[in-house]
Design goal:
By secondary structure, this protein is of the alpha/beta class. The protein is 42% helix and 14% strand. Helix 1 (24-35) crosses helix 7 (222-233) and helix 3 (75-89) runs parallel beside helix 4. The structure holds NADPH dihydro-nicotinamide-adenine-dinucleotide phosphate.
């Protein structure tokens, strides 16, 4: 197995917290940021085994990692995860707000419970974690949220509340960028299109209905989103802030 020490790495000595990092896009982001030299903390709610395995594999490659159980709907747990990141690795430089849920139902039947849970995980946790992280970060800090191209385009039924939650991130990102820009902290929103994960498997019937909507005619891979996030987290992206950046194979084109 190759080690993480051989090549020039953009995130050496940085500490990153990935909210919702046990599976899917978040786990790929954790692996990539660790490969770039960052110590990574991943939170999870229901997947302790996957989170522990991720930590083991990063450590086996010479990286530093920690998994913390923290339901993103629980503000205190999210704040504690930020505090634990600093306690374990000494500082916090990068926050990736990745935890998200997708509840689909027509507006006539969408439950209030699912509405509240979607807002709690997809929006409120971004505010809570960003606030706690911003208090810890210094010059060069990075806050990156995983939104969705559905903030811009919702071409199927049942996604109204999900689209609303991801559109909320567009505004929150702009405002936080204004607040934190003077301190040298950037805030950006990465908007993936369909990406092959547990949330949206590329081999489902639903996936077949979406493939024609992408200019490139295929689902994205988690590593493609992670590479984009790693760039935004690095020193070369210091002039990008307040932006909602779509990476969707042309889904919204
Ligand atoms: P998955 O469902 O595959 O993984 C979700 C991750 O978020 C898991 O690590 C999960 O951890 C964590 N998570 C979910 N709910 C909570 C919670 N309440 N508290 C803490 N962690 C939580 O999703 P994806 O990887 O596909 O999606 C990641 C992000 O990307 C989401 O914000 C999603 O909206 C967005 N996105 C995904 C697209 C896709 O096509 N896949 C397209 C566009 C955007 P655990 O298992 O422990 O709960």
């Amino acid at each position: 197995m190759s080690t993480l020490t051989s090549t020039a790495r953009s995130l050496t000595d940085k500490v990153a917290l990935i909210q919702g990092g046990s599976r899917g896009i978040g786990a790929a982001i954790a692996r990539r940021l660790a490969a770039e030299g960052a110590a990574v903390v991943v939170t999870f709610s229901r997947s302790p085994e996957q989170a522990a395995e991720l930590v083991r594999s990063i450590e086996a490659s010479g990286g530093r990692a920690l998994a913390v159980q923290a339901d993103s709907a629980d503000a205190q747990a999210v704040q504690d995860a930020v505090a634990q990141s600093v306690a374990r690795f000494g500082h916090l430089d990068i926050l990736v707000n990745n935890a998200g849920i997708l509840a689909l139902a027509p507006i006539e039947t969408f439950s209030l419970e699912d509405f509240d849970q979607t807002l709690a995980v997809n929006v409120r946790s971004v505010f809570v974690a960003s606030q706690a992280a911003a208090r810890q970060m210094g010059e060069g800090g990075r806050i990156i949220t995983i939104g969705s191209t559905n903030a811009e385009r919702m071409p199927f039924a049942g996604g109204s509340v999900y689209a609303m939650s991801k559109a909320a991130i567009v505004g929150l990102t702009r405002g936080m960028a204004r607040d934190l820009g003077p301190r040298g902290i950037t805030v950006n929103n990465v908007q993936p299109g369909p990406v092959d994960t547990d949330m949206n498997p590329a081999n489902s019937e639903f996936a077949d209905s979406l493939k024609d909507l992408m200019a490139v005619g295929r689902y994205g891979r988690v590593e493609e989103i992670a590479a984009f996030v790693a760039f935004l987290a690095g020193p070369e992206a210091a002039y990008i802030t307040g932006a909602s950046l779509t990476i969707d194979g042309g889904f919204a084109a």
